Amino acid sequence: MMADSQKVYGMPFGKVWQCLLNKALRKGRTADEVYVLAEWLCGYTKDEIVRMAEDGTTYGDFFRNAPQMNPKRSLVTGKICGIRVEEIEDPLMRDIRILDKMVDELAHGKAMEKILRA
Questions:
Q1: How far is it, in rounded angstroms, from Cα 9 to Cα 47?
Q2: Can you spell out the DSSP letters for 53-76?
Q3: SS3 for 84?
Q4: pLDDT in tens, 89-109
Q5: What angle, 0 to 180 degrees and rounded to 10, lies between the N-to-C axes of helices 13-26 and 91-107?
Q6: What is the pTM of this model?
Q7: What is the distance between the alpha carbons of residues 94 and 109, in angstroms, rounded to a whole number?
């Protein structure tokens, strides 16, 4: 599992970000909504996210260097890829999967207020 984690952490953020955007767009959601999720989770601005998607930042560094991880992120629970988010022991991988889960909820038509645990 550790080797898999390192592989995920080393992926270009821009490549992963495009996949997250595409997942939402295919289901009739907007790119702006995906930016809102990442801003809420990590504390970045949209401009910062755009820059990191273009400058070769790794997916691991996107999360490691986040200005302010949202303390409410622990309220994001459920399964993504068959794994319960709240049971992931590695904090970095848990945060990565939380973003996956939130985008998944968005793609499945969940209201933004509920996704942001408002």
A1: 22
A2: HHTT-BHHHHHHT-S---GGGGG-
A3: strand
A4: 999 999 999 999 999 999 999
A5: 30
A6: 0.94
A7: 23
